[in-house]
């Protein structure tokens, strides 16, 4: 993989740091009139998800990370791996539990997810921003309450638990924002 | 936007013209003479952290190609004028630094530089404040010594602290940089200053930081009262380093020795040494009147004036479109 000098730094560039692929979020050139030049960089570690700030001496080089995003449809899990398929080439790829992480609760069959590959292997799985899931269990709630104040917890078919308005019932399909884990609306079947 | 197009708006261009005219009026009223000096020079700065663009002149008097440098500031040439009894002078012109572009940086930029014979740095700081009030409509500036700024905001005395204390403070401030031990003390102080002090000073009114450590004297006299500090100041406003001024060093021997020290530092850092400006040193030999001088970034001043977020908003064709 190519090396990048600090003057090539910009948001979105993937570099290696402490043996982990990282995404540069922000890069600021710091140069006091009479002093040494630095690059102050905000970085997201792609495996741990940690965001940190690092300072480089301007002109320094760092190793690039072979990271790419690909759009793949979720197929199924065999209990150990999660299988995804490229809808154009039908090529399949398996992600482990670590790559899927918390997002396992948003995996819906045939939904197209963003799989981040590092050296060809999946490191993160990002579900679509919105998914539709069936409620498997929720308290019946009060009849006639349509104001939706307060809400109640509802368990979805994937095991995810979200707060829903009181009028939403077991068996209904709802739309959820996976970024915040919040209920958006009911879906007409 | 197409790459041929300017990155500025028409109203920004008008604001620049107005700004320049306010500055010229200010100096006209004070009977400071506008001058011009060459952008190309045989000698250049020796600072370890300042790189000049170098170009080749094929028609030199020696019959062989000669290196000429684009000025990083008009300082040496303007001091030659002062040695020739010019009296108070100012210049608005282009300066060049061979370094990266960024939010506050463009390798080619507009600089205002002026000199006041008979002034010490404190008197000039007063005048800089007056100019800022005239141009930006700011209130009277706040003054802090370099030492006070560190003690107030970091509880660290920059003049007496040990290297270990500095490393510890860097860690405490979460400044994460590899091989911190290879950084000079001044670089560590500058990082702490930019990351932890700059955001806290000069947010309402311009902040004048003065009496820099002697190791960062550049071309300033050392203080007679406290030789640990130099009579150098900088002006910060809303997170921008806006100006740098000196009570000017006038002793030619001391000046030559600082240039030589700089070149030694460059050699140690594996950088090419730079030709010392002998015309400038010869002028100092003939006598530089006691004076203070300051350089101010006009593009940054305009950014503040119109509240621009990036320097390319105030430069018609930044280096990416040069």
TrEMBL record, chain A:
GO terms for biological process: peptide biosynthetic process. The keyword Methyltransferase does not apply. Keywords: Cytoplasm, Elongation factor, Hydroxylation, Protein biosynthesis. The keyword Transport does not apply. It comes from the Bacteria. GO terms for molecular function: translation elongation factor activity. GO terms for cellular component: cytosol. Residues 131-186 form the Elongation factor P C-terminal domain. The modification N6-(3,6-diaminohexanoyl)-5-hydroxylysine is found at residue 34. It is found in: Cytoplasm. SMART domains: EFP, Elong-fact-P_C. Pathway: Protein biosynthesis; polypeptide chain elongation. Pfam families: EFP, EFP_N, Elong-fact-P_C. Belongs to the elongation factor P family. This is Elongation factor P. It comes from Alteromonas hispanica. The lineage of its organism: Bacteria, Pseudomonadati, Pseudomonadota, Gammaproteobacteria, Alteromonadales. The gene is efp.
UniProtKB/TrEMBL annotation, chain B:
One of its GO terms (biological process) is lysyl-tRNA aminoacylation. Its EC number is 6.3.1.-. Residues 16-318 form the Aminoacyl-transfer RNA synthetases class-II family profile domain. GO terms for molecular function: ATP binding; lysine-tRNA ligase activity; translation elongation factor activity; tRNA binding. InterPro entries: Aa-tRNA-synt_II, aa-tRNA-synth_II, aa-tRNA-synth_II/BPL/LPL, EpmA. Pfam families: tRNA-synt_2. The keyword Lipid biosynthesis does not apply. This is Elongation factor P--(R)-beta-lysine ligase. It comes from the Bacteria. GO terms for cellular component: cytosol.
